[in-house]
UniProtKB/TrEMBL annotation:
Residues 98-203 form the TGF-beta family profile domain. This is Neurturin. The lineage of its organism: Eukaryota, Metazoa, Chordata, Craniata, Vertebrata. It comes from the Eukaryota. The gene is Nrtn. Homodimer; disulfide-linked. Interacts with GFRA2 coreceptor and RET: forms a 2:2:2 ternary complex composed of NRTN ligand, GFRA2 and RET receptor. Also forms a 4:4:4 tetrameric complex composed of 4 copies of NRTN ligand, GFRA2 and RET receptor, which prevents endocytosis of RET.
Amino acid sequence: MFNGSRKYSPLPSSPSSSRASSSSSSSSSSSSSLPAAPRRSPRALQRHSSLLSQYSSLLESYTEGEIRQLISALVERYSQAMNSGGHELPLFARPGSRRKRARARHKPCALKELEVSVSELGLGYESDETVLFRYCSGTCEAAVRSYDLSLKSMRSRRRIKKEKVRARPCCRPLAYDDDVSFLDAYNRYYTVNELSAKECGCV
């Protein structure tokens, strides 16, 4: 592999040229010798073609959906830069951040929990009491069946147009936890069933 800076050694000279150079140096010892002309660096065209090949191989590793997301993100960043007057925005995300996003997208379906107030549940109750809300999160790529693949093909061929169908399994609760009881801000007692997930799966 090459280092960042290249060093070029002078070309070997023939015996006749060495004799000629020795005679010329002895006859004109008082005159200063001219430095050897350095080799030309590779043309900028080669560097551009290498850069283009790197970006081409990078884009080939993306799926069609990821390329669409990338283009939409680039357009959004460009419009934000034009509106804010910025000029320096990265065109492509760093490989490390892309790997992190890939790992985040492909986490398996699992049960998670979060401590929230009853008012934050969005069920219309006003209460400062806190409950443990368990929910399902993750992807179901490993649970794709022939049904999902065929349904996706029918949608892409526009054989199924108007129906709202899901062409891949979703991480959803398979069972729910016990009922949750609490007092609201007016000291009224309520019980909510099927609030928190107990078991998660791909359905």
